C-alpha cells in the first residue's frame, strides 16, 4: 500500500501545531476589539489560514471573523474537513507541568492546550492533505478545510458558515476518536437559577463542558469546612480563610469518570450548616454519579448511544442571586422535552428555576452510507484493527452541523483522552499514524472518483 506522509510532513505538522498551540485562543466576547470572540481567536484563525496558504490552498476569511476556509482541487462535488481553533480555558495553572500555551515536546508527547482538542488533529489532517498533493494525485473532488471559531461555546461561527457558504456533500471532523463516531448525543446546556445568599460568595468552574477539578471557598468558616470535608473523605487544602476542594477534571461527556469538585464543596458546606437551596440541589439532586440519577429516577439510556451524562460545570452565588450551569448529553432516542420537564420539576421542588442556554440536537449517520464506508475501510486497511467498532459518543463535535459528516480520530482506541484537562497532550507517533490514515481517506474521497 502506498505511503503518503514522510518524516518532513510529520516534522512540519509538529512545528505548525506548536505555533498554533502557542496562541491562547480562549473565547473573549467582552474584548470589544472588533472581533466576535476576541483577538486571540482571530489570530488563531488568521494563522491557520496562513498555514493553508503556504501549502498552496486558496483561502477565505469571513469579514466579520466568524470562520475561514481553505480549498484545494477541482470537481463539482466537495469534501469537507472541519476543525476548530478555539480552546477551553487553561484552568488551574498550578496543575500544569509547563505553560498551557508554551508548547513543549517531552517523551514523545506534545503538551499544550489544544494539542488534542482540536489544533493538533486539524493540523495533522491539513498536512496529510499536503502529503497527498505532494504525491501528484489528481483531485476530482474539491476539498475544503473549514475553521470554526467558537466550538467550545455556542457554535456561532459555524452557524454563520452554514448560513452563508456552500455545504460540502460529505466529510469528517478530526475531533474525536478512531475508528469512527457515527452518532452523537444531543447537547443541552442550561442554567438553574435561584436566590442569593448573605453568607456565601462563590464563583466556581470554568465552562459547561468541563467537570470542575477544583472549587474554592473563602470565608470565616474555612476551618469548619475543612474539617467537614475531611470527614467526608474529600481532598481539600486550606490556606487561612481559603479552602480549595479537589476533584478530577474530564470532559463533560465523560462526567461519570470525573470527580465534581463543585458538588463536593456543596456537600461540605451543607455539613457545616450552610442552608441554601442551590447547595441542596447540588448535593441531593445532581450528586456525584455523573448521571443525575436522583433527578431522573435512575440512569437514562438507549441501545444506540448509551447513558445520559449530567455535569454541573459552574456555580455562582452572591448576595443577589445564585446560578448553576449544567451540561447534559442526551442519548439519541431520549426525548429532550422529557429531560427538560423532569429537571424543571425537580428544580422547582428546591425553589429554583430552569433556563435553557443552548441546545444542539443529536446526529446519526448510517454505517452503510458515505463517508462512513470509506473512512472505516481506510482505518481498518491501515491499522488491521477490526476489533474496535464504530461508536456513538456523548461528545458534541461539529460533525452534527452538516449532513453526511462523521467524527474521525484522532485518538486511537485505548489511548489517553486529555482534552480539557491540565497537561493536555498529543502523542507524536500517534499523530504520524493518524496523518497517514487521513491522507488515505482524503485520497479515496477526493482523488479516486470516476
TrEMBL record:
Pfam families tied to this protein? Peptidase_M20 (PF01546)
Matching entries from SUPFAM superfamilies are given as: Bacterial exopeptidase dimerisation domain, Zn-dependent exopeptidases
For this protein, what is the EC number? 3.4.13.-
Q: Its Gene Ontology biological processes?
A: L-arginine biosynthetic process; proteolysis
Please give one Gene Ontology molecular function term for this protein: acetylornithine deacetylase activity
Q: Which keywords has UniProt assigned to this entry?
A: Dipeptidase, Hydrolase, Metal-binding, Metalloprotease, Protease, Zinc
Q: Which cofactor does it need?
A: Zn(2+)
Recorded hits in InterPro entries, A to Z, give: ArgE/DapE_CS (IPR001261), Bact_exopeptidase_dim_dom (IPR036264), M20A_pepV-rel (IPR010964), Peptidase_M20 (IPR002933), Peptidase_M20A (IPR050072)
**Record's keyword annotation contains Hydrolase:** yes
Q: Which family does it belong to?
A: Belongs to the peptidase M20A family.
Report the protein name in the record.
Sapep family Mn(2+)-dependent dipeptidase
Q: What is the lineage of its organism?
A: Bacteria, Bacillati, Bacillota, Culicoidibacteria, Culicoidibacterales
Amino acid at each position: 500500500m502506498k505511503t503518503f506522509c514522510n518524516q518532513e510532513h510529520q516534522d512540519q505538522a509538529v512545528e505548525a501545531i506548536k505555533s498554533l498551540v502557542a496562541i491562547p485562543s480562549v473565547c473573549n466576547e467582552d474584548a470589544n476589539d472588533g472581533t466576535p470572540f476576541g483577538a486571540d481567536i482571530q489570530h488563531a484563525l488568521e494563522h491557520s489560514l496562513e498555514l493553508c496558504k503556504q501549502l498552496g490552498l486558496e483561502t477565505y476569511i469571513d469579514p466579520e471573523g466568524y470562520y475561514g476556509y481553505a480549498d484545494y482541487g477541482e470537481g463539482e462535488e466537495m469534501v469537507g474537513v472541519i476543525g476548530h481553533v478555539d480552546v477551553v480555558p487553561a484552568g488551574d495553572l498550578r496543575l500544569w507541568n509547563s505553560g498551557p500555551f508554551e508548547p513543549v515536546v517531552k517523551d514523545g508527547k506534545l503538551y499544550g492546550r489544544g494539542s488534542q482538542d482540536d489544533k493538533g488533529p486539524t493540523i495533522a489532517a491539513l498536512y496529510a492533505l499536503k502529503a497527498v498533493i505532494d504525491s501528484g494525485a489528481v483531485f476530482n473532488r474539491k476539498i475544503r478545510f473549514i475553521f470554526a471559531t467558537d466550538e467550545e461555546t455556542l457554535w456561532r461561527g459555524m452557524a454563520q458558515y452554514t448560513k452563508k457558504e456552500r455545504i460540502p456533500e460529505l466529510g469528517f471532523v478530526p475531533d474525536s476518536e478512531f475508528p469512527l463516531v457515527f452518532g452523537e448525543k444531543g447537547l443541552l446546556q442550561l442554567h438553574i437559577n435561584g436566590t442569593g445568599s448573605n453568607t456565601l460568595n462563590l464563583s466556581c468552574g470554568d465552562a459547561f463542558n468541563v467537570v470542575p477539578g477544583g472549587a474554592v471557598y473563602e470565608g470565616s468558616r474555612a476551618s469548619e469546612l475543612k474539617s467537614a470535608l475531611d470527614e467526608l473523605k474529600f481532598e481539600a487544602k486550606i490556606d487561612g480563610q481559603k479552602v480549595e476542594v479537589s476533584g478530577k477534571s474530564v470532559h463533560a461527556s465523560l462526567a461519570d469518570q470525573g470527580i465534581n469538585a463543585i458538588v463536593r464543596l456543596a456537600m461540605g458546606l451543607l455539613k457545616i450548616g450552610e442552608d441554601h437551596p442551590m447547595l441542596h440541589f447540588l448535593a441531593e439532586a445532581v450528586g456525584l454519579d455523573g448521571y443525575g440519577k436522583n433527578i431522573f429516577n435512575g440512569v437514562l439510556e438507549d441501545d444506540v448511544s448509551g447513558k445520559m451524562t449530567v455535569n454541573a460545570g459552574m456555580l455562582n452565588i452572591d448576595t443577589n442571586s445564585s446560578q448553576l450551569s449544567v451540561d447534559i448529553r442526551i442519548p439519541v432516542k431520549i426525548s429532550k422535552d422529557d429531560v427538560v420537564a423532569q429537571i424543571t420539576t425537580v428544580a422547582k421542588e428546591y425553589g429554583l428555576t430552569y433556563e435553557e442556554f443552548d441546545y444542539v440536537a443529536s446526529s446519526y449517520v448510517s454505517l452503510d452510507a458515505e463517508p462512513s464506508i470509506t473512512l472505516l475501510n481506510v482505518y481498518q486497511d491501515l491499522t488491521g484493527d477490526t476489533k474496535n467498532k464504530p461508536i456513538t459518543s456523548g461528545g458534541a463535535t461539529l460533525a452534527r452541523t452538516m449532513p453526511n459528516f462523521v467524527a474521525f480520530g484522532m485518538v486511537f482506541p485505548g489511548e489517553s483522552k486529555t482534552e480539557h484537562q491540565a497537561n493536555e497532550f498529543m502523542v507524536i507517533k500517534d499523530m504520524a499514524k493518524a496523518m497517514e490514515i487521513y491522507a488515505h481517506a482524503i485520497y479515496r474521497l477526493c482523488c479516486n472518483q470516476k
